[in-house]
Amino acid sequence: MQLQYARTTVSDDQATRFKNLDSATVDAAVGFSPDFASGFLAATGWLIPSPGIGGFGNGGEGVNNTEKATDNHQISGTLTKLKGSHDLKFGGGYISSVFASPISSPGLGFSAAQTNDAQGTAKTGYSLASFLLNVPDNANRRNVNEQTRPGGVFSAFVQDSWKATSHLTLNYGLRYDVTPDPTIRNQCHGWPTRWN
Q: Side-chain half-sphere of 106: how many Cα atoms within 13 Å?
């Protein structure tokens, strides 16, 4: 009998955070609601929202942890039985499939529409002007923990290597693999992820 075990794990954690900022400073200086800029699954304290000024760029803080980009366990076994001129093998295995990624980020969007000509006769708006006047076009808050349900690959096989004559050996067998679909489930927390 031969038994095998293997594990593969990969982590890909990314975070954009400002140094030396505490929640009291952020609340007093910037004035974001704690319902919008704090209480995230993947981050402690506050996250400064991305300003999202159209045509100028972005910034802000965000955490995108993929702590289990891959976290697989593999177990397999083979039983070999010699019987006469037959070399019989029976075996099977299981490879798990796991993925987990908590993502946290707030964001604001500023566009030209908010400072455009009210009558719509001319395109006079400017996204930077909307930002300076503090008139956002949209806001979003991402606070999810994406995870897969249990799943993986199950396999089983039987094989025979039959030495029919001193000059002829026949190898034949059957193998079956099944892969249940580990659908991703999102655990969302807080208010809707986007409003306009």
A: 20
Which pair of structure tokens corresponds to residue 181?
A: 């679909």
Max alpha carbon distance in the chain (Å)? Answer: 95
Pick the closest to residue 53 from 124, 104, 125, 118 (CA basis).
125
The candidate with the shortest Cα–Cα distance to 135, out of 115, 155, 116, 164, is 115
Domain that holds residue 125: 2-195
Domain count, the chain: 1
Query: Global pTM?
Result: 0.54
Query: pLDDT tens digits for 13-72?
Result: 778 777 776 656 665 556 677 788 778 877 777 788 888 888 887 777 888 777 777 788
* Alpha-carbon span 103 to 43, nearest angstrom: 9
